[in-house]
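Predict structure. Chain length: 388.
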Amino acid sequence: MPGRHHLFVPGPSNVPDRVLRAMHRAQEDHRSSAFPELTHGLLRDIKPVFGTQEGRPFLFAATGTGMWEAAIVNTLSPGDRVLAVRLGQFSHLFIDTAEKLGLKVEVIDLEWGDALDPAVIGERLAADANHALKAVLVVHNETATGVTNDIEGLREAMDAARHPALLLVDGVSSIGSLAFRQDAWKVDVAITGSQKGFMMPAGLGMVSLSPRALERIETAGFARHYFDLRPQVLHNDQGYFPYTPALAHLFGLREALDMMAEEGLDNVHARHARLGEGVRRAVAAWELRLCARDPESRSNTVTAIVVPDGKDARQVIDHAFRRWDMALGSGLGRLNGKVFRIGHLGDCNAGMLLAAIGLAEVAMHDAGIPVPLGSGVAAAQRWYRESA
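Prediction complete.
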């Protein structure tokens, strides 16, 4: 089919031409005396994206899933008790990782589409007088439901409970797109990957540890090899990596960080807020509902749209892909067939989203959901014009 494929899943996101060109280059010696300039620059310039001056970032040839494991094995020990909130597919998988590694996970289960209540976490920690719980595991932006959780409020609740548990936060679909303040929120381990807000192909895992979490890498009781941060510290200090790094991804990250700096991180966050609101207004015009119930928690990087009873969201997704050359996000886990998702993160602007909204309308018609054609596009157009 002529023209460009329309990619509107919430990751992998669109890769801008600048990043593609930066990655399309000959390989070079990752042990040369010139290589530390790249390494030190990346580790320095990624810190503002995490919202940290005090934290220490690490880069792996991996994905966010690998960074879940890296976060756990470098700060905790087998048999440790941790508290986690399950409110979507990715928080479920984070919990699954922790359990398979040997942690004892106490789970707070919420309806998928709800946001965490920091007070509930605070109450549970306050009741843990002996500090048996060693960490709290949460997802900042639950990609499956389009819910953004209040990490700042969670930290306030943890502090009010005077509990020393570490705070491990999955920011895979938020960091690089939404405001993330590791230092201000006292996030001990922040986890993300390259394929969403960083506008790159999947394959680069990123994790940032607070000074408190960094101290734990010497006492953590898990057996570690590839994800062991101790050799990373040693080699990164010299400008190298303990293993062969993903060179093309490092060059792509260099370009992506330059693009973020040129736009300005505050502008990046504002752009995502504006784009997300346009999609939400389109959904309102369709008279459909969002999976995210609380308006204050609705994500600016992904919108999960609930199809009417008796309809199958998988048909919308399949028609969009086969007839209209557009990829929409599927419903994951218990939401399979109930929602489709529009990703609006990374390399994205209003014009691109207007195309996505328009094609989603015709795909819904193809699937027997007769939303008024042009209604969502018009609602988003009005917002984008007013907010420009």
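Summary: Residues 6-12+265-387 form a domain with the Aspartate Aminotransferase, domain 1 fold (CATH 3.90.1150.10).
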